[in-house]
Amino acid sequence: MLKILNNDRGSILLIVMALLMMTTFIGLSMYSISDDDVSIAGNVQNSTKAFYSSESGIAMARTVLWSQYVASSSVNPSKEAGAIGNRATYQAYLDGLGLTDSSQLVLFENVDLGNGQTIDKVVA
C-alpha cells in the first residue's frame, strides 16, 4: 500500500542543522557582546587617563602659580618675597598676571609624565 510515512532518513540531518544554526547564533551573539565590552572598557580607560592627566595639569598649574606668588613681592597690598601673604595679595598677584575669567595664561607646555604620557599645554 502506501509507504510515504516510512521514509524518515533525513530528519536527523534537519535537527542537527537547526542545532548548529542555534549554537552559531549564540556564539556570534557572545562574540558581539564581548567585543562591545572590550570597546567600552577601552573608552573608560581613555577617559580615565584624560581625567587624571588634566588633574595633574591642574595640580602642576597650582604649584607653579603658588611658587611664583610666594617668590614675588608686592607693594599694594604689601607682601614681601618669600612671605605667604593673604587672599588680597594673592588676588592682586593673579590680577597682575592678567588672569581674569576669560583670559588665558600658558604656564607650561609639552611636559613628559613618563610611560609615554605627556601634557601638551596647561593654561590658567
What does the model show?
It is built from two helices and two strands; from the N terminus they run H-H-E-E. With 124 residues, it is of the alpha+beta class. It has a two-stranded antiparallel ribbon with strand order 1-2. A hairpin with a 2-residue loop joins strand 1 (106-114) and strand 2. The chain is rod-shaped, with a radius of gyration of 34 Å. The N and C termini lie far apart (97 Å). The mean pLDDT is 82.
Sequence of secondary-structure elements: HHEE
Major sheet summary line: 2 strands, antiparallel
Strand order of the largest sheet: 1-2
Provide the gyration radius in Å.
34 Å
Helix content: 55-70%
Quick structural gist:
With 124 residues, this protein is of the alpha+beta class. The protein is 58% helix and 13% strand.
Features:
single chain; 124 residues; 13% strand
Question: What is the fold's blueprint, element by element?
Answer:
Layout: H1 11-71, H2 87-97, E1 106-114, E2 117-123
Antiparallel strand pairs: 1-2
